[in-house]
Structure formats: structure tokens, C-alpha cells
Amino acid sequence: MSLSGIGAFKENASPGFFKILTAVLPAILLFILFIIICALIGLIMNDFVTIVMFKDRIKIIPAIKKVFSILTLNKLNFTLYVLIKIGLAIVSSIIYSIVSFVAVLGLFLPVGVVAAVFYFISKAIPKDIQSVFLIVVVFAAIPVILFLWYCLMCMYLPFAVFLRTFSMKFFGRLDSRYNLFRYTNE
């Protein structure tokens, strides 16, 4: 069933919500399946293949073969890993959003005070140099804004490090050859 098959493109057509939904649902499901497959491939490549490539000093195709041979022996553990990783990503995103929101709220008062001071200064100076003052303030504000943006990005760093080391520890438990936290001169 397609949209043109249910008469969605005819004049004065009102095919109804459920007819449109049944026509579009297969495409939506295929798109969701495509997204899930791409996400799993990305997870395997980022979390496991890079570890094998680093440890064995090999290229991507042999590393993929090694990873899939390890993961096929540990299907249940891999499924649990994916579910735990999804849960951890959700929880870390929520915590990061809350912390970022609190940090931004905490910046409103100082930024508001500084903006008010610059506003009153701009009103106190003569009109012929107000445009120069505005340009100076904008160029002075750019590094400050970039620094605050950098600080907000750095607030996510502990979560990123945890999620990265979590995948490395997990893969090291599946195959002890790929435990990157155990230093040896191999």
C-alpha cells in the first residue's frame, strides 16, 4: 500500500490518519531498523574494533573478523553490554543536561550584572564613540563566551571517559589479550 494508492494525492482527498499510517509504517519501520543497525555497527567499530586494531597493530578488516569471532562466542554478554550501554548513555545524558542547566542558570546573574554595567557605560559615553565601544565589547566578549562554552564541554568529560573505559574493560573481560589496563611488554 502506498500514499498514491490510498488517494492521498488526489484533489479533495482526505484519506484519514490510519490509512496514511498503514501506508507509511513500513517505511518508518525500515528506517528505524536501519538506524539500529548503523548504531550497532558504530558501537562495535568504536568500542571493540579500535581496541583490536591498536593492540594487534592490524588494519580494519582483520580486526573486524577477530571482533566478530570474539562476540559470537559471547552473544549474551554482548547483548547485556548493549543494553547497559544504552542505559548508561541515557542516565549520563540526563545528569549532564541537569548539570549544564544549573551551570547556565548560575551564569545568568553574573552575565546579567556585567551586561547591565556595559549598558550603563554605553549610555554614559558620547554617541559618536558608542559604536566603537560596542565593537570593543563584542571582541572582548567573544573569548569569554568561547571559554564558557569550553567549560560546559569539559563538564561532560568524566562521562565520556567512563563510557570509553567501560567498553575497554568489558572487551578485556571477554578476551584477556585485549585488556589494555594490564601493562606488559608483549
What does this molecule look like?
- By secondary structure, the chain is mostly helical.
- It is built from five helices and no strands.
- It has two domains: 73 residues, no CATH class; 107 residues, no CATH class.
- The longest helix is centred in the middle third of the chain and has 50 residues.
- The chain starts with 16 loop residues before the first helix and ends in a 12-residue tail after the last helix.
- The relative contact order is 0.08.
Tally of strands = 0
What is the CA-atom radius of gyration, in angstroms? 27 Å
Proportion in β-strands = under 5%
Straight-line N-to-C gap: 60 Å
Summarize the helix and strand pattern as letters. HHHHH
Query: How is the main sheet built?
Result: none
Q: Segments where pLDDT lies below 50 for 5+ residues? A: none
Task: Give the helix/strand class.
Answer: mainly alpha
Please, what is the average pLDDT? Answer: 86
Tally of separate domains: 2
Number of helical segments with 4 or more residues: 5
Overall 3D shape:
flat
The percent of residues in helical segments reads: over 70%
Layout of helices and strands, plus pairs?
Layout (H helix, E strand, L loop, with lengths): L16 H40 L3 H14 L1 H50 L5 H25 L2 H18 L12
Helix pairs in contact: 1-2, 3-4, 3-5
